[in-house]
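ligand=nicotinamide-adenine-dinucleotide
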Amino acid sequence: MRLAVLKETKPGESRVAATPETVKKLIALGLDVTVQQGAGLASGLPDADYAAAGATLAPDAAATVAGAAIVFTVRAPEAPLPQGALLIGTLQADAAAAGAFATAGVDACSMELLPRITRAQSMDVLSSQANLAGYRAVIEGAAAFDRGFPMLMTAAGTVPAANVFVMGAGVAGLQAIATARRLGGRVSATDVRPAAKEEIKSLGASFVGYEDEESKAAQTAGGYAKQLSAEFYAKQAEVVAAHIAKQDVVVCTALVQGRKAPTLVTEAMVASMKPGSVIVDIAADAGGNCALTKPGQSYLTDNGVKILGFTNWPGRIPAAASALYARNLLTFLTTFWDKDAKAPKLPPEDDIVQGVTLTRGGAVVHKMFAPAA
Ligand code: NAD
C-alpha cells in the first residue's frame, strides 16, 4: 500500500506532513512511501534525507499521488487524488469542499476537528502547532521590541523589565506566558474560562480580567471558550483598557471555536499604548484580536505601535512544527492501523474517527456538513 506526502502549494506554507523520522516508521508499518521532491525543503529536510529513510521521490504532485491509498498533507491539496484514497491533513473544509471530496471519492480526515480528549492528545495537531505558535509569537515580539525583556542592571544604569500581557491562555497563550517569563518579562494574562485563571497563576503570571456569573460558565464541554454576551465583552474591555496602556508587548491568542476571533484590543486601546510597544496577534488567521491587525502583515501604527499580524504562526517555526505535525499524523495512522491487513482501519463509531472524518465512500458524513445536520 502506498502513502504519498505532497509538497504544500499554499503560499507561505513552509511545513510538511512527514519527516524522514516518520517516513521510517510509516515504512515499518508496511507502507511504500512516496514524497514529492522538495516537500521538506522549507522545513530544512532535503530530498536526500527522505531517500535515506527509504522513501521514493516523485517529481510532481500527480506522480506523487499516483496509485496512493493514503495521502498526508498539511493543507487541502490542489492536485486531484486517486479515487478511494484516504486523505489526512488540516483541510479547513467548508460544506462545499467536503462535498467536493465526496464527489471525488476521497475519504477525507480533517485533523483540526479532532476532539480534545485525553486519548487524542498525541495526535492533536491544534495543540502541537499552537504550542509552537505561542513560543514563536513571544520570540518575534521580543525581537520587534526595541528594549529588552529582562531587567538589565548595568554600570550605565538600569533597563526595566518589559511588561508582557498575554490575551487568551489556552495552549498557545500558556506557552507564550512561559516563554515570556523565561526571557525575564513581567507577565500578566487574561482569559474568560475559569480554569485558565489558575493555569495563568501556576506559570507565575498575574491574572487580569473580569469575572461574573456568565464567565463562570464560559467553557464548553469540549474545553473551548463560549461566545459571550456584548455586556460581558464591554466589562472585560474596561478592565483590559486600563491595563493595556501600561504594557510593552501584548500577545493575542484568544479564539472562539468556529467564529471570528473576538476583538479584545480596540483602536482606542492601541492609541493608549506607548510608542515602541508591540502587539503580536497570532489570532490573525481568524481575523485577529486587535482591531488594527492587518492579517498577513506587520506594520507600524501612527502612534508608533508595531502590530505583527502574520498568519500561519506555526509555519514561522517550520522545522519544529513539521516534526510535531508529522508525529501527530503518524500517531493517528498507527492508532487506526490493522497490523494483519497492513491497512488503515477507521471504525466509524470511534469518537476520534467520528470527529475528524468528513467523507467516507463518496458521502459527506461529518455532523457539521452531512445533509441531515
Ligand atoms: P483556543 O485556541 O480555542 O482559544 C485560545 C484561548 O482563548 C482559550 O483559552 C480561550 O478561553 C481564550 N479566549 C476566548 N475568548 C476570550 C476572551 N474574550 N478573552 C480572553 N480569552 C479568550 O483554545 P485552545 O488553546 O485550543 O484550548 C482550548 C481548551 O482545550 C483548553 O481548555 C485546553 O486546556 C483544552 N485542551 C485539551 C486537550 C486535551 O485534553 N486533549 C488538548 C488541548 C487543549
